[in-house]
Amino acid sequence: MVRLTELGQYLKDKREEKNITLEELQTATKIQKRYLAAIEEGNYSILPGPFYARAFIKNYCEAVGLDYETVFGQYEKDIPKAAREPEEFKPRSERPRSPGSERDSVLKKYVPIFIIAAVIALVLAGIYMLMQNFGGDQAEEKKASESLIQTDQDAKQKKGAEKSKEKEPAEKPEEEKPAPAPALTKKETEGITTAYELAGSDTMEIDFSISGPSYVDIKDASGKILFTKQFKKGETYTYKSEGQKEILLNIGAAHTTQLKFNGTAFEYPVAPADRVHQKILIRFVP
């Protein structure tokens, strides 16, 4: 049995351990199902080329929670060589369009808006001219009426001011505003791991909202696994951490895993489209 078949069998075993179908993996990685099956079979001849073969294997590893650098190191001799390291594979719909097509798209988008704005301006100008022609005779009457109304209002306000001075309500003491919740502070990034600090608290609620298959685990400072789960599309979950010095979140598919820390939405340090597999280290500072 060749090493390529061993690699394919290894990836297939890891996928089946996490109960991920090829259809779910296709959704998570944006790679066609037939290419994923070819990787498991070691049949790289049907793939677009060596560069895409390495890129597809990298995305496959990250989607099932594997460290692709470790996998590449173990099977490097049998994986097709590429002129440069693989990047995140982008489907054709997400690739940048040519300047000409973008310019045409902008023109199609904004020309109707300009036309509508011009029509509205002409209508408003016509209304203004009509009001100027028919409103001149009424201006003097309106001015006299407003003068009488203003005089009456001034008299009422004077009486009201005199009464309010007699009984002025005592000022209410200002209510104390609650202290803001502790916020995460970004510190440093090493490889796929970004460290944050949470000052003044050792308690944290982490909300997970899943839009596609994703593997997640949480470890403490000693490396002990506190939580592990293979999420499916549509699932939500809340994990509460208490009394820990630090926790490490291993997110297998960041583009399908939305996080909230203590009720605040979390923005990944690296866009999930650029890095699917990310790790978040949180240190609790007294």
From TrEMBL:
GO molecular function, one term: DNA binding
Domain HTH cro/C1-type positions: 11-46
SUPFAM superfamilies attached to this UniProt entry: lambda repressor-like DNA-binding domains (SSF47413)
InterPro entries to which the protein is assigned, alphabetical: Bact_Cytoskel_RodZ (IPR050400), Cro/C1-type_HTH (IPR001387), Lambda_DNA-bd_dom_sf (IPR010982), RodZ-like_C (IPR025194)
Residue ranges of the region described as Disordered: 82-103, 142-188
Composition bias type Basic and acidic residues, residue spans: 153-178
Keywords, comma-separated and alphabetical: Membrane, Transmembrane, Transmembrane helix
Chain ranges passing through the membrane: 110-131
Protein's recorded name: HTH cro/C1-type domain-containing protein
Organism ancestry: Bacteria, Bacillati, Bacillota, Bacilli, Bacillales
